[in-house]
Amino acid sequence: MAENQLLIPLEEYLKAGIHIGTKFRTEDIKPFIYKVRPDGLSVLNIEDIDRRINVACNFISQYSPEDILIACRRESGWSIVDLMSKILGIKKITGRYPPGILTNIQLETFIEPKLVIAIDPWPDKNAVNDANKSGIPVVALCDTNNDAKQVDLLIPCNNKGKKSLGLVLWIITREYLKRRKIVKDDSEFKYTIDDFSKD
Questions:
Q1: Cα-flanking dihedrals φ and ψ of residue 68, to 5°?
Q2: Could you tell me the pLDDT band of residue 198, with boundaries at 50, 70 and 90?
Q3: Which end of the chain is more exposed for a tag (fewer CB within 10 A), N or C?
Q4: CATH code, 65
Q5: Using an 8 Å Cβ cutoff, are 19 and 44 in contact?
Q6: Which strand (E) or helix (H) includes residue 116?
Q7: What phi and psi, each to the nearest 5 degrees, are found at residue 113?
Q8: CA pair distance 53, 90, nearest whole angstrom
């Protein structure tokens, strides 16, 4: 693995456990699985994870902050999503997804994002379904147990652990600001990986 081509040092990926999947494996995620450990847990290929994060960063950075919505039903991701939303100025829904917010124009809370990011397409399935109905592309973090049929761009990763989630969203946040030329380089990005995985 050419470590100098990765978005971050390999040890940071390993430390966060970004590559440790579940015992269950769907067809959608099988191509990203490197091996299965003796305890039955799947191990994702870190090069593939890095490559997909890079592709996702290029894609997401084409959208203005006001056109992006990030959805996170899982409580372990709420503070991370809150921080990402605050830094980038993107819309967020943490906790229960309000039905019809993307599809019912008569609702006072109706919004029209041009991109939806889902932390996990299973608990965030209502947001993913509504995005699909509305023709809004979906980028989703997908663990080995995720069905990605309604996802336009998946990032294979451990989407359950706080450190792993924090790391993925830290990279996306940093790269979004760099690729939109809001910050010049890594030295201008003042947030650390730890800021994204604090309780």
A1: -110, 135
A2: confident
A3: C
A4: 3.40.50.10490
A5: yes
A6: strand 115-118
A7: -70, 160
A8: 18
CA distance 83 to 51: 24
Q: What is the pLDDT of residues 147-180, one digit of tens each?
A: 999 999 999 999 999 999 999 999 999 999 999 9
What is the Cα–Cα distance from 187 to 196, expressed in whole angstroms? 17
Structural domain including 128 reads: 10-180
The letter for the amino acid at 187 is S
Run of H or E including 175 = helix 162-179
77: its two tokens: 């991701």
Phi/psi of residue 101, each to 5°?
-60, -25
The answer to the question of residue 151 being in a domain is yes
Q: What's this model's pTM, rounded to 2 decimal places?
A: 0.96
Measure Cα distances from 39 to 21, 24, 27, 42, 77 in Å.
12, 12, 20, 9, 26
Residue 185 placed within a domain? no
Contact 29, 142 (CB under 8 A): yes
Residue 163 lies in a domain: yes
Sign of the alpha-carbon dihedral angle for 52, 54, 55, 61:
positive
- Domain assignment present for residue 176? The answer is yes
Task: Report the domain count for the chain.
Answer: 1
- pLDDT of 199 reads 66
